[in-house]
Each structure stands twice: as C-alpha cells, then as structure tokens.
Specification:
With about 100 residues, the protein is an all-alpha fold. The chain has one domain. The protein has four helices and no strands. The radius of gyration is 15 Å and the shape is flat. It starts with a helix and ends with a helix.
Amino acid sequence: MAWFYLLAAGLAEIGWAVGLKFTNGFTKPLPTALTVGSMVVSLFLLGLALKSLPLGTAYAIWTGIGTVGTVILGIFLFAESADAMRLACIALIVAGIVGLKLVTP
C-alpha cells in the first residue's frame, strides 16, 4: 500500500506544482485553494508512504514523479520546450525512479 500512497502523493505534487502557475502569485482564490489543498494531500500521502518506505527512496521518487509530470504538463499546457535534450533528461529521471523502485523492497 505504501507504493500506492507514494504514487498518489507524486500525482498530487504535480497538481500543486502546475496549480502554482494558475494562482497568479496567489491572487486568484480558487486556484490558490486548490493548490494548497493539493499540497496538503501530497504531503499527507507522502507521510503515509514513509511509514514503511526508506526516506531517501520515497523522497526521490516523490520529487521525480512531480518533476516528470510537471515537465510533461508544461509542454502540453504552456507550450514549453520539448527538445531532444530536455526529453533525454526526463528519461534519465524516469530511469532513476524505476531503478529506485527495483532496488527497494
């Protein structure tokens, strides 16, 4: 169950990271409330995952999921660059996430 919590926490992290873009510096109430709510959910789920997963592994995977998801949504929602080098770097992060999962019981 810890891995499910960690995945959900990472997805919620994507939500708050992307949500920050829509808050307009925390001047828009609804996007701000949704972003803060996503932050709370993300940290709560990370805390649940940390009950049985190693800190370093869980934190690295949590931030990795958030990073990869945020970059992908940035490409699709905000027309950010999708050049080969950027995608190769994202692939390295994904490889690291997979590697940490494989070596963690």
